[in-house]
Amino acid sequence: MRFLAYTLYTIGILLLIVLNVKGFPGFPTGEKPDWKRMEMEMKAREIENKLRIEPENVDLLFELAKIYDELGYEEKMVMTLKRIEESISKKAEKLMLSKKIERTDLPVIKCILNDSKSRR
Asked: pTM for this one?
């Protein structure tokens, strides 16, 4: 009886070692996870959730674009930069409509837009 228990125990240990080296679904293959990358992805998800509440928050969009750049997600970064441009142009339009800006004040708006682009 003791022999059977030791045999099954040994077979189980050997199976775990072999499967851990070769890998199978649901169990790690011995590779260490990239914690920094995982933390950055979590931060990106948190920012995306905040942007659902405030979709035109330029500061959050800048931060999200930086994270996507560090992670190497070029398509997402480009889409985020386009969202930033749209948000800035919408704010400029609202400013023009609310204050009924004349043509002489357009250089001021261009200065504001250039300043926000330089923050990137």
From this structure: 0.55
